[in-house]
Write a structure and sequence with these properties.
- It is elongated and about 90 Å long.
- It is built from 16 helices and 18 strands.
- By secondary structure, it is an alpha+beta fold.
- Strands 2, 3, 4, 5, 6, 7, 8 and 13 form an 8-stranded mixed β-sheet that branches. It has a 5-stranded mixed β-sheet with strand order 15-14-16-17-18, sandwiched between helices.
- The two termini are 51 Å apart.
Amino acid sequence: LKPMNCPGHFVMFDSKVRSYKELPMRFADFGVLHRNEASGALSGLTRVRRFQQDDAHLFVRPDQIKQEVKAGLEFLNFIYGLFGFDAAFALSTRPKKALGTKEIWDNAESQLKAALDESGKEWTLNPGDGAFYGPKIDIRLTDAMKRKHQCGTIQLDFNNPIRFNLQYRKEGDDEKGDDEDKAEFNGAIEKDEKGEVIWREGKLKNGFERPVVIHRAILGSVERFTAILTEHFAGKWPFWLSPRQVMVVPVNEKCNEYAAWVERQLVVKGFYAESDVSGRTLNKKVREAQLAQWNYICVVGAKEMETFAVNVRQRDVEAPLGVFSIQEFVAKLESEAMPCSQDVKVFEPFEGRLPEAAAAPSPAPAPVASAAAAPKAQSKAAAAPAGKAAAAKAESKGSKQGGGGDAGKKASPGAAPAEHAAIEEVLLKQPYVKGFVPSKADAELFQKLSSTKLPESPNLKRWYEHIVSFPPVQRSSWA
C-alpha cells in the first residue's frame, strides 16, 4: 500500500542514466493511494482512506522551471474553466519543519514567485504552509455556493532529488565518462533520535547535475473533486460529463421500434442514451425525464419515423428546439461532447509543413454479375414484406436487359448484383431488412455477404458496416 506516488516516480527516473536532452520528463499517475485517516476525520467522498489523484511529477533542468510552472498554471486554468470554477492562487512558503537548507528554499520560492508574476494572475502569500520538501502554489476553487476548496497544487522540490540521489548527464559531457571523483565526499546526513544515521546524501558523479522536481495535481483527489462537482452542479451535469445525456420518448407503441433504433444509433456514436417504451402517457414520460435532469429529450412519432428525424427538447429551455434529422442531431451532440485543448483529428505542422492527404484509392472493377434465378429466392428470404415489390421490380429490370449472363455483362462498372439492388431499395425506407430492429434475416444476409463479395451500394454498405458493430453472439440471438 502506498500513501503517495512520489517515491515510485523517483525510482522510475533513476532506473537508467538520464541525459539533459530527455528533460523535461513528465510522469503522470492515477494509481490507488491509501492513507490511514482518523475515523473521526472521514466524511463521505471528501475525506476517505482509499483514493486516487491525478498526480504528476515533472523532472526539469533549473532553466526549465519557469516555463513548466507557467504551463502548469495554464493547464489548471483550462481544466477549471471547463467546470466553471474561479481559481485563486496562493504561494505557500517554508514551514517550521522542513528538509533542506534555507538557501535551497529561498531559491525555490523566488522561482515560483517569478512564474506567478509572469502568468498575469493575481496571487497571495501563504507563509509557512509549504510542503516539508519545498514551496508550493495552492489553487483554491470557488463553487456555485461561494465556498472555497483547495484541490490542485504545483510544488517545487529541490530536496527529494538529493535524498534519492537523482542526477542526469549535463550538456557538454555527453561523451565523457561518469567515473566518480576519487576525492573524499562529505555529504549531508540525517540521524534519528538515538543518533544513528538513517540517510546519507549520495555523491554526484562527474559531468552530472541534479534535476528539479515539480509536483503537479489538477483535480487533486478524484473522489473529493467528484463530491465538489456534484454539489456545484446540483445534479445538472454539463452534457459532456452527464450520465444522462439523451432520452428518446416515442409518442405511442407504434413508434417504439424506431425509438429503440434511435437509441442504438446514439449509443454506437458514443453517447449515453435510453428510450422510454413503457405504457405511460407521453406527458408523463417527458415530465419524468425532465425531473431526472436528462440533457436532451427526443420525442419521436410517425412523422419523425418516416423522415429519420427527432423532435428535440433541451434541459432548462422552455421551448422545444425543433425537429432535427438524425445526422444533424448527432452533429450537434458531437459539438458538445468531451472538450479538448486542441483538435486531435488533425496533424500538427512540422517546420510549417503538414503531411499531404493520401489520394483516394481507385475503385476496383466489379466482377461480372450472374443474373440467374437464385437472386429472386434470396431476396424473398432476406427482404422484408415491404421489399417484395422492390425485388420484383429489380427482377423485371433484369429480364428487360436480356436476362441470364448477358445482363451481368451489360451492367455498368461497379454495379451491384440484382439481389443487392432489391435490398438497397428496402434499406431506403428502414434501417434493417425487416423493420426498425435487427432480425434473423439481417444475420443471414450478413453471413452470406461475409462469405462472398462485400456490398458496394451505399445503403447496403452502410447497413453492413453497422451490423459488423454487433458482437457475433448478439447477432446469433436475433429472432
